[in-house]
């Protein structure tokens, strides 16, 4: 298993990458976490496709304003102003993004795009719909749920989780210099070009 993992990561023999190749049980655990996150996003996406969400999309943002400090209210109002152009279209865009993210996670397909997109989407949900997890004051118990997804996406990204039980194990090498969209390390294309000079 070690040799196949280092080959997928684009490592050359005798490099530091080959020294940190993951053991088989860890790769299965990483894959299981990725797939479990995908199932969570399937539920999230399914809820976004419900007529109630699509019809009341603006209301979700308005409810996040309650009790917020002026700076947070300004941030939410900024996004609300943008989304008022066509709330239904923005609700459908959110549903499409969450569906695409769920597919990427479950299948391990274009994983790096999914992880970065998922982290950004989670930050937007946390900062806008959850109002940065606030308002903070007496009785506040946490900083909101969506922010927790960001470090999980970072861990999946840094562990190249799409390579394990995922389509990226097949796709990454076939994408060549565009392999970073799947599960190749971001510097793999640069290193490959440097080795040919």
Descriptive labels:
197 residues; mainly alpha; 11 helices; disordered C terminus
Task: Describe, in plain words, how this protein is organized in 3D.
The protein has 197 residues and is mainly α. It contains eleven helices and no strands. It has helices at 2-8, 16-19, 24-48, 51-55, 57-63, 70-83, 87-107, 111-129, 149-158, 168-174, 188-195. It has one domain. Mean pLDDT is 84; it is low at 1-19 and 192-197.
Summarize it:
By secondary structure, this protein is mainly α.
Shape: elongated
- How many distinct folded domains? 1
Strand content: under 5%
| Helix amount | 55-70%
Radius of gyration equals 20 Å
Spell the H/E element sequence: HHHHHHHHHHH
How many helices? The count is 11
Could you give a short account of the major beta sheet? Answer: none
SSE layout and pairings?
Elements: H1 2-8, H2 16-19, H3 24-48, H4 51-55, H5 57-63, H6 70-83, H7 87-107, H8 111-129, H9 149-158, H10 168-174, H11 188-195
Helix pairs in contact: 3-7, 7-8, 8-9
């Amino acid at each position: 298993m070690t040799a196949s993992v280092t080959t997928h990561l684009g490592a050359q023999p005798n490099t530091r990458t080959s020294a940190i190749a993951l053991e088989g049980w860890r790769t299965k655990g990483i894959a299981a976490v990725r797939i479990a996150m995908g199932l969570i996003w399937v539920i999230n996406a399914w809820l976004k496709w419900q007529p109630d969400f699509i019809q009341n999309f603006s209301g979700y943002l308005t409810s996040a304003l309650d009790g917020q400090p002026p700076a947070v209210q300004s941030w939410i109002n900024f996004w609300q102003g943008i989304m008022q152009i066509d709330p239904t279209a923005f609700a459908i865009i959110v549903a499409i993004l969450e569906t695409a993210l769920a597919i990427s996670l479950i299948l391990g397909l274009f994983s790096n795009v999914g992880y970065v997109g998922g982290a950004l989407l989670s930050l937007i949900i946390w900062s806008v719909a959850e109002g940065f997890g606030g308002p903070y004051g007496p009785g506040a118990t946490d900083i909101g749920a969506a922010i927790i997804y960001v470090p999980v996406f970072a861990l999946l990204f840094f562990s190249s989780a799409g390579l394990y039980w995922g389509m990226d194990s097949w796709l990454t090498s076939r994408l060549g210099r565009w392999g970073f969209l799947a599960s190749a390390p971001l510097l793999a294309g640069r290193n490959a070009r440097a080795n040919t000079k």
